[in-house]
Model the fold of this input.
Amino acid sequence: MTVSVQAVPILSDNYAWLLRESGSGAVAIVDPADADAVMPAIETAGRLDLILLTHHHLDHVAGADAVRTRWGAKIVGAAADAHRLPRLDIAVREGDTVPFGQASARVIDTPGHTRGHIAYFFADGAVLLCGDTMFSVGCGRLLEGTADEMFASLQKLAALPDETQVACGHEYTESNIRFALTVEPDNAALQGRALEVKQLRSAGEPTVPSLMVQERATNPFLRAGNAGRLGEIRKAKDGF
Ligand SMILES: [Zn+2]
Done:
């Protein structure tokens, strides 16, 4: 029994994620902001059990109600942001467990991009759904939170196993790498990732999920060392 993950490109550069649990056949969709765009993937899967939301931004939640109506699935989201999310069937907090067929997700509080941002980690299959907290070679803007909060959130994610698949909310990897090379021009792992990403994008392929071991070697926000430095790098990226 394991959880597998598939990218569903939506809007201009967002990803929804389709999850399948092999033991029971359970299916979940993460951040279905465009109901029409995610329907074919769900129809192919043939059922839908859960809709997982990472944070309240419209480019993550807009299609959730329509998908629930069509499939009768339950919407899961942060209790802390229940007032500004679609109506939640299951409201969760840090450390809660979300059953998914024979597997389950652990809820991780990851404030910084938004106050009520959460991530979901499936130990079976090592899949992390991290929304706009962490991107491949980047992190989300500090729209509602501080550098201290984002640093703590990213350190929690960085502590997950090497083989963790990082399924994030946007295809920002190419521009993130351009910026990261200004921070660490001599980082060989980053240079290697730049080549890999260039090939993936020219083939029209997603660059995510990436692996946590790869992010620890290339992501300047995971490598910042302290919150002050993270804040400096984030500010530089905002103006990049
Ligand atoms: Zn967002």
Remarks:
- The mean pLDDT is 98.
- DSSP finds eight helices and 14 strands in the chain.
- The radius of gyration is 17 Å.
- The CA atoms of residues 56 and 84 lie 6 Å apart.
